[in-house]
Write a structure and sequence with these properties.
Blueprint (H helix, E strand, L loop, with lengths): L8 H19 L6 H17 L5 H7 L13 H22 L2 H19 L17 H13 L6
Length: about 150
């Protein structure tokens, strides 16, 4: 089993920040709904804390509320770039150190965070009539995140 102690501080920070940044990437894909999206992300972390035991690595990751380090991105472009970079680096680190099952659990968690943000409110429409559950921009962000998490052989 892979644990927090198996990572140096920089590696652990990358692994912990990547899911939150993936959620932020989706949040900034379209305007509006950021409060609902933030709440949805927080609920995803809370649910993961309640379901402890699937992966010790994931249990340690969600044990504390997510936060970003001092290099917090500000603009949408910075969030997109940092999200892509950190997620690619987290994938590289976990492929080296984690078991395939642990990597799969981590990938599912990252996608669940991003999907929670995307599905937090309908995009478009009027008075909650019409519109889409997931906008084209959010879907594009989800697709990018999912592609980054694909196995190296895929």
């Amino acid at each position: 089993m892979t644990r927090k102690a198996d990572f140096n501080a920089e590696e652990w920070s990358t692994v912990v920040e990547a899911p939150l940044l993936a959620g932020m990437r989706v949040m900034t894909a379209e305007r509006g709904g950021s409060i609902r999206e933030t709440v949805a992300i927080a609920k995803t972390y809370a649910k993961a804390r309640e379901q402890q035991g699937e992966s010790e690595l994931l249990d340690e990751l969600v044990a504390t509320p997510p936060a970003l380090g001092a290099n917090r991105p500000g603009s949408q472009e910075e969030i997109n770039a940092m999200s892509a970079e950190r997620l690619r680096e987290a994938v590289r680190i976990l492929r080296e150190k984690a078991s395939p099952d642990e990597f799969e659990s981590y990938s599912r968690f990252v996608l669940s965070v991003a999907e929670a943000a995307a599905e937090a409110h309908r995009e478009g429409g009027f008075l909650k009539v019409g519109g889409k559950q997931v906008s084209e921009g959010e879907q594009a962000a989800l697709d990018e995140i999912a592609a980054t998490l694909q196995p190296a052989s895929a």
